[in-house]
Amino acid sequence: MNLSSRKSIIELLRAKSGGSIARFAKNNHVSRQSVYEAMAGNGARRIRIEIAKTIGLPPSMIWRDNNNAIKVIDDLHYIGCGHD
Prior knowledge:
Radius of gyration: 12 Å
Order of helices and strands: HHHHHH
Helix content: 55-70%
Strand content: under 5%
Oligomer: single chain
């Protein structure tokens, strides 16, 4: 799947999380708005990492437009090596 658009990220997240962005947000104790911000590559790193884990792809493959420093840090958190 081409993850170049927010719409494709939403579709994949819905498929992997039981069909609802609201459910994903509730399960992760965040607002839907925070999830949508994260899907755009912004917002909280923790949410981006949870989205990536749910989808099953490293953040750098999902958010290709983020700068390299953000992609490296997100990928380190994804594999469990990052610290806040």
